[in-house]
Write a structure and sequence with these properties.
107 residues, two-stranded antiparallel ribbon, 61% helix
């Protein structure tokens, strides 16, 4: 009986170590994913060109800071609105904005 109990305790400890290793791997993977998400969120938000994410119906899901600035509205006011209703401000300076953005990254 004692050897059976010792074997069960041993098996339990081995299983516990395996679970701890899996937990460590999951934690590391989660941290890497969060860092990657943060990096790409920063690239989207601070890009020199306007980016707008629309749903299938043309409703703004997200817009970067440059896009919101170009439209002259705060980002929270743009999210959830139909894209056609947001173009109230003339966007005549888009070519000038594009040139200014391109000048930031000369070849």
């Amino acid at each position: 009986m004692t050897s059976e109990l010792e074997r069960l305790v041993h098996d339990l400890r081995v299983h516990e170590e395996q679970v701890q290793l899996q937990q460590d791997q999951l934690t590391e993977t989660q941290q890497l994913l969060e860092a990657s998400r943060d990096r790409y969120a920063d690239l989207y938000d601070y890009a020199p060109l306007p980016y707008v994410t629309l749903d299938r119906n043309g409703v703004i899901e997200d817009i970067n800071l440059t896009g919101a600035d170009l439209l002259g509205r705060a980002r929270p006011l743009l999210a959830g609105r139909p894209s056609g209703s947001t173009w109230t401000r003339p966007i005549a300076d888009v070519p000038g904005h594009m040139r200014a953005a391109a000048a930031l990254y000369p070849r």
